[in-house]
Amino acid sequence: MFYTYIFLLLVFAIFLRPISTLIHELGHGIPALLLTDDKVTLFLGSYGDPKESIKINIGRLEIYFRKNPFHWKIGLCQMHSESVSVNRQILINLMGPIMSLALSLIVTYYVFFADLNGDFVVLLFFFGISTYYDFFANIIPQRQPIKLHDGTLTHNDGQNIKNLLKYKNLPLEYEEGIDLYNSKEFKKAGEIFEKVLDSGHKQDLIYRLAISSFLNAHNYQKAKLFNDEFEKKNNRTNFDSNDYNSSGLLKSYLKDYSKGLLDYEKSLELNPENNLTLNNRGYTYNLIGEYDKAITDFDKAIEIEPEQAYAYNNRGLAKIKLGRKKEGLNDIEKSMHLDKDNSYAHMNLGIYYYDLGEFAKALEKFNLALELDKTTYEIRERIAETKRKLNLS
Fold it and tell me: Which of 3, 105, 157, 160 has the greatest number of C-beta atoms within 10 Å?
């Protein structure tokens, strides 16, 4: 009998406890997939550490299973969408505990009302305790923060819901700004979030949305203004990997490359798998002519996300600059296959022809890039310079 119970406890620890954690995190992950358009990542057995894990991709759902099942007592659901309404965030946080409670009730029924084998009932009984623990440990707000792998802090579901309810007191303009952001009307969204901040609502979330909006609208001075305010507000103690990435990209656009690279380094220290940072740092290396380093970053970015048009396109430019023209052109062609409206691919082809001295072809590509996206970085300057070469200005 003793060995039977030891066996049952091992089964519980190795199989059933991980299952209850998985069900809980899927409770967050499935609504997140339904309510956002971006990727959702689940970590089973860690608070965001992809190392020592098996990775599985199911459409937009990415799951890291920690190889050691005894670590599966913890988990994390990470949304990659930058803009999710408060109501949706509350629902996504709430669904994890609800899934745990639903599983608890099902297990309770089978323990007390189904005619099952005695040993199996014992196993289900312990499993039921585990699922009830998941429910109560997560739904009851706890002020003690949870430190994630990237060094940032979060809270359990109950505390997150409690914190989100405070955002319900934000002015109506906040929801308007979210709608504009999701519709990619970034200039208008930034103006809304600026008004919300000016009205005294200085939450970190609003700063992040304002910075991202103005970055996407290519209003770098406004983005810098709010990035500086956000930095002074908490001396970067609340900066996560994405915050450092945004700060680095902003500095790259403003040609403060050395400080931008420092921010990218901090971003990758917190999250070495941050694909956005790898892409943006590689792009910055391209801008300053360090093409070997750029290719290293783009290689890793493509390894993490093989369908990333941006990384192929800019890796192609780096290879062309290093004399690997055939490889580079193949990368740019791959980028166009992944995203036919990729203005930067046409701009980089224009740079290729410009360097060859084929200015008419270069101008054609630059004009096409401008037609696809008028905010393409420095495209107007490239067109003006090419026209001067052709004596058209």
Answer: 157
